[in-house]
Amino acid sequence: MLLKSTTRHIRIFAGKIENNELVPDDKVLTLDIDPDSELLWNDGAVQQVYRKFNELVKSSDGEDLTEYNLRRIGSDLEHFVRSLLQSGQISYNLGSRVNNYSLGLPRVDVNAEAK
Q1: Do the beta carbons of residue 59 and residue 69 sit within 8 Å?
Q2: Which has fewest Cβ within 10 Å: 25, 41, 69, 70?
Q3: What region, left, alpha or beta, does residue 20 occupy, with left being phi > 0 and alpha being psi -120 to 50 degrees?
Q4: 16 secondary structure, DSSP code
């Protein structure tokens, strides 16, 4: 059985990609960040998410690989993504096919509109 954690912007699978297929593997975790492209990312923000993911996985070292543990890591990463959005390091993709402001309403620069 494939263990996984899915939040709005983070998906974690206990498996690896082989020939464009996800193969279950309880020794490898695969991270999919913002699969619906709801956010605009830069390389620095993506790397921050990967570093946070690695940190969370390392802190769980020695624990059994369970759906609960994956979901905890996924939830922590979702909160981390929210912090990146709130600090302005990433932003909503207003051209996305879905505009779901699940991390809070977008900020609008009132002064920019007045120009």
Answers
A1: no
A2: 25
A3: left
A4: E
Alpha-carbon gap, residue 17 to 94, rounded angstroms: 30
Evaluate whether 57 touches 73 at the Cβ level (below 8 Å). Answer: yes
pLDDT 10s per residue in the chain (115 long)?
789 999 999 999 999 999 999 999 988 999 999 999 999 999 999 999 999 999 999 998 888 889 999 999 999 999 999 999 999 999 988 888 777 767 766 666 656 555 5
Q: Would you state the structure tokens that stand for residue 80, as one six-digit string?
A: 């981390």
Q: Model pTM?
A: 0.85
51: which 2 tokens? 């570093």
The structure tokens listed for 1 are: 């059985």
Residues 25, 15: contact at Cβ < 8 Å? Answer: yes
The two three-digit tokens of residue 40, written as one number = 């605009």
Domain carrying residue 77: 4-114
User: Which residues make beta-bridge pairs with 4?
Assistant: 13
How many domains is the chain built from? 1
Residues 3/67, Cβ–Cβ less than 8 Å: yes
